[in-house]
Amino acid sequence: xxxxxxxAKRPESRTGVRxxxxxxxxxxxSISAGFIFLVLFAIVTMLVxxxxxxxxxxxxxxxxxxxxxxxxxxxxxxxxxxxxxxWTTGLGIAFALPLSLFSAIYLAEYARPLTxxxxxxxxxxxxxxxxxxxxxxxxxxxxxxxxxTVAPLFSRAFPGIGLFQSSNPxxxxxxxxxxxxxxxxxxxLIAIMYEILLAVPVGLREASMAVxxxxxxxxxxxxxxxxxxxxxxxxxxxxxxxxxxTMAVLMVVGNVAALPRSLFDPAYPIPALIxxxxxxxxxxxxxxxxxxxxxxxxxxxxLSFNILSSLALRRMLQ
Amino acid sequence: MAECISIRNFxxxxxxxxxxxxxHLDIPCGQITAIMGPSGCGKTTLLRSINxxxxxxxxxxxxxxxxxxxxxxxxxxxxxxxxxxKVGLLAQRPFSLPMSIIDNVAxxxxxxxxxxxxxxxxxxxxxxxxxxLWEEVKDRLREPAVRLSIGQQQRLCLARGLAVxxxxxxxxxxxxxxxxxSAQNIEQRLxxxxxxxxxxxxxxxxxxxxxxxxxxxxxxxGEMVECGEASAIFSNPQHELTRAYLHGAIG
Amino acid sequence: xxxQSRLRRRLARIEETAFLxxxxxxxxxxVMILGWILATLLIKGMPVLSWELIxxxxxxxxxxxxxxxxxxxxxxxxxxxxxxxLLALIAALPVVFYLTTYLHQKTxxxxxxxxxxxxxxxxxxxxxxxxxxxxxxxxxxxxxxxAGIITLAFLELPILIRGMDEFxxxxxEELVQSSLAVGATPLDTTLKVISRQTLPGLITAVLLAFxxxxxxxxxxxxxxxxxxxxxxxxxxxxxxxxxxxxxQLGTPFPAVQQRAYASALVLTIxxxxxxxxxxxxxxxxxxxxxx
Lengths: 318, 251, 291
Description:
The complex is a heterotrimer of chains A (about 325), B (about 250) and C (about 290).
Chain A (H helix, E strand, L loop, with lengths): L2 H7 L2 H44 L4 H6 L3 E2 L4 E2 L2 H32 L2 H16 L2 H27 L16 H25 L3 H9 L4 H30 L2 H6 L17 H8 L9 H31 L1
Antiparallel strand pairs in A: 1-2
Helix pairs in contact in A: 2-12, 4-7, 4-9, 5-7, 6-7, 7-9, 8-9, 9-12, 11-12
Chain B lengths: L2 E12 L2 E12 L3 E5 L6 H8 L9 E9 L2 E2 L7 H7 E4 L10 H11 L5 H14 L3 H4 L12 H14 L4 E5 L7 H14 L4 E5 L3 H7 L2 E6 L2 E7 H6 L4 H7 L5
Parallel strand pairs in B: 3-8, 3-9, 6-7, 7-8
Antiparallel strand pairs in B: 1-2, 1-4, 4-5, 9-10
Chain C lengths: L2 H43 L5 H5 L15 H32 L5 H15 L2 H14 L6 H24 L4 H9 L4 H30 L2 H6 L17 H9 L4 H32 L6
C-alpha cells in the first residue's frame, strides 16, 4: 500500500476534515443505534397503550383465566387460546427435542466432514422455507395421516386414556400442529445445539478418551453435562420460536376456541386468534383492545424467553 | 535394552501434507524418552500416534506399524480403547473433567469397572499420592476440580491417567502451561515414575530434556534425524541438524 | 481383563450402537422430511404450473376456478420484499457501521445492542404485523404496499444487521489495525477496508433478509392487504405469494386449491434461488478474502 507516502504529503487541513467527518459520522451512527432500542420500546408501549381500554372492563385475572371468548357479548376469556398455544408449543418441542439433540450430537461428535458439508445446506434450506409452505405441507400430508391413521390407532390402542381419544373427525388438531412445529424448529435447534456442542473444548474430550472412555461414554459423562445449560438455552429459544409461529399452525390446528382435552382435539393458539380476526376487530367494542392484550401477553412471554436464551447462549459460545 | 514401543515405517498425512515420514524408532522400556525438535517437526503427531489419538482428527491417513509389547496397535482387530487404557496421556494443558476432584481420579476406574466403594476411595488416595497431590487436596476431595490451581490440575490429570494402570505414559510438553515451580513439581513426578513406567516426553526445551531424558529422539520436518542415549547425543551429536538445535541455532 | 469388566465393555458397546442408530435415524429423518416437502411441492405444483398462471393477474371468477394467474401476487411479493429490504438496509447500515467501527467487540454497549437485536429477531412476525398495523393507523394509511413495506422493514432490520455484523466480525483484527496504523480514521477504515473485505457477506445478509421478507405472511396479512390488481401505487393494497397460497388453499374449489400448490412452488423456487445465489457468492468470494 502506498497510503503511508500519500498520507505524509497530505496537508493539515485535509486531516482536519477527515477527523471532523469521522466525529460527525460517529455521532450520527450512535444515534441510529438508539433506533434499535426505540423500536423495541415502541412495540411494547404501543401494545400496552392499545390494550388499556380492555382493563377498564375486564380484570387481568379474568382475562387470563376466563374460558369464554365472545367479543359481541363483551366476554374476553383468553384461557382456551393460552392453552392452545402451550399445547401446540409443548408438543412441538417434545417432538423436536430428541430429533434435534440426536442429530446435533451426531453432527458434532461422529459425522465425517463430508456428512457435515451435505447437512448444512439442508438445514439452511429447511430454516428458510416460509411457514405457509410448512402449513400447506401439513394440510396435504400431516393432517390426513393424523385423521386416517394416527387418531383411530391411538383411540383403539389406549381406550382408557382421554389424551388419546379422538372426537374430532378432521385431523386438524393439536397433534398435527405439534408435528409441523417440530419440523419447523428442528433445523434451528440442530444448528444451535451443534454450535454449543462444538464449544466444548476438544481437550476435555481427549482427556476422557485418553483414559480409555469410548466416544459415547465421553459424550454421556463429559460433553453433555458440560453443554447442558447451553442446550437448555437452545431449547428456550426454540420454544419462543414455536410460541409465535402463526401461519403454519393456523392452517393445521383447527381453530376452535375450546379447552382441548385430547391430542386429537382442535385448538386455537393466540397467534392464530390475532391473524384470523384482524378484519373484524374494529367493528366490535373492546375487541381490538382484547386482541392487542393477547398480542402483548404473547410478546412478553416471547421477549423474556428470548432475553434469557440470548444471554445464556452468548456466554456459552464465547 | 528392551524396547516397549517399536515404530516401523510409520507415515502420517493430514490431507495432502505428509507430517511424519517413514519413522523407524525403538523406544526403550522403563526410561524417559524425550522427543525434541523445532515446532512443526511432527513430535506431537508422533506422540499422539502411540495412543491412537490421531484418528480423532479429520482427513488423516496413517501407514505403518507401531508395536507395543510385540502387538501392532494399528491392527484392525485392536480396539483403541484397550490401547488407551494401556497408554496414558498427559496433555499440554491440564483439562480437568467438569466434576469433583475425587471423581476426576475415579473417572477411568468407573469407566472400566476397576474399583468401587471402599476400594475406589483407597485407589483414589493411592494415585493422588503418586501424583504428589494427596496432601494438598485430602480435605477437599468433593470440590470441583477446576478450583485447583493450574499446576495442581496438571498433577490431578496425572493421577487420573495413572489410575487406569497404564504401562506407558505419554507427556506432551506437560509443563509448557505451568509456572516454574509447578513445572519443577511435574518433572519431579516424572523422574519418580520412571522406574515403573515407560515415559515418552515431548519437550520444546533442550534444558528439560537434559534434566529428564535417558533416551533422546531428535526430529526435523517430519523425519527422525537421530536417536540414542541422551548422554551420548548431548555430548556428541552425530548429525549437523541436531548439533545446531542443541546449540540454539535452529528451533 | 476380568470377565466383569469384559461384560461391562460389551454393554457399553451395545449402548453406543443403539444410540448411534437413533442419531443416524434422527438425522436421516430431517433430510428425508426436506425431501418429502420438496417432493410434495413438485408433485402437487408442477402439473398446475403454467405460463398463464405466472404471467397473468386473476381474471373474473378466478376464485371459482376461472381464468387468470397469480402475477399480482408474484409482483406484489417482489415489490414488498424489495421495498422492505431497501428500507431496512437504509436503517441498518449506520447501525452496522457503528457496531463495527466505533465499538470494540467486547464493550458492554455493543453487547447490549446485539442483545436487543437478537431479541428483536425473535419477536414473532404476527407481532410485527400488529405493530405495523398500529403504525399504519397512526400514520393515517390503509392497508397498502407502503404499509406492507414498512412492516417488512421492521421484520428484516434485525436479520440484516445481525447478518452483516456476523460477517464483519470475521474480518481479521490485524487488517483493521494495519489500516488504523497508517493513520486512517475508523470511518475510513470501515468504508475502504472492511466494506471491501466483507461485501459478499453484506450481499448475503441482504439476500437472507429478502428471502425472509418474501416468505412472511403473518406480517403483511394486516398491512399490505390483498388485491387482484397488479401493484401500481404505494398507497394501494398489494397481493403477496404467501397469502396467495393461504387464501387459495382456503377456498372450497379443488381447481383453486391446486393453484395454491403452484403458487407455493413458485414461492419456494424464488427462495431456493436466493439461497443458492448467496451460497455461490460466499464460496466464490471466500477465495479472495484475507483471513
